[in-house]
Amino acid sequence: MKQDYYKGYTEEELKKMSFDDFSKIVTSRERRTLGNIKRNPKLKKLVARIRKIKETGRDKLIKTQIRDAIILPEWLGLTFGVYNGKEYKKVTITIKHLGKRLGEFSHSTGPVKHSGPGVGATRGSKFVPLK
After folding, report:
1. What are 29-75's pLDDT values in tens digits?
2. Disulfide engineering: 81 pairs with which of 6, 23, 63, 89, CB 3.0-4.6 Å?
3. CATH number of the domain that 79 lies in?
4. CB atoms within 10 A of CB 65
């Protein structure tokens, strides 16, 4: 079976890795955000809530609206419900999600489907007889 790596580290090594060590291997933009966890009360509260859920060992959906949270190695295997403005999209954290933001996996806009204009959309369609 093929094993996944994140910047040369296996999943087991990442789970054992401290917060400071992980912040050294992510990009500078994510490192800056991770440094602000101490100053951002919403992010700090989310991390504390996740740690509490992991201690209890319950496997439940963690609903959050904090789309800009950086995904940490201690979250591997957890399932989040990330709010996209309308509903909570399920996101299960794998090694490929590490270092990215939660909002990247819960799109807030849907695909635009263009078609012909509806009745009343133009001046000419006003007089089209309806069957």
Report:
1. 888 888 777 788 888 898 899 889 888 887 789 999 999 999 999 88
2. 63
3. 3.30.860.10
4. 15
Residue 88 lies in a domain: yes
- Counting the structural domains of the chain, the total is 1
Looking at residue 41, its pLDDT comes to: 85
User: What does the block give as tokens for 32?
Assistant: 């800056």
129 inside domain: no
Whether 3 is in a domain gets the answer no
Phi and psi torsions of 75, nearest 5°? -90, 0
Distance CA(44)–CA(69), nearest Å, equals 10
Phi, psi at residue 80, to the nearest 5°? -110, 150
What residue numbers bound the domain in which 81 lies?
A: 11-107
The per-type count for the chain, helices as H runs and strands as E runs, is: 4, 3
Check whether 76 has a pLDDT greater than 80. yes
Let me know if residue 22 belongs to a domain: yes
User: How far apart are alpha carbons 105 and 36 in whole angstroms?
Assistant: 22
- pLDDT band with cut points at 50, 70 and 90 for residue 85: very high
What's the one-letter identity of residue 106?
S
The CA distances from residue 92 to 28, 63, 82, 95, 124, in Å, are 25, 12, 10, 10, 50
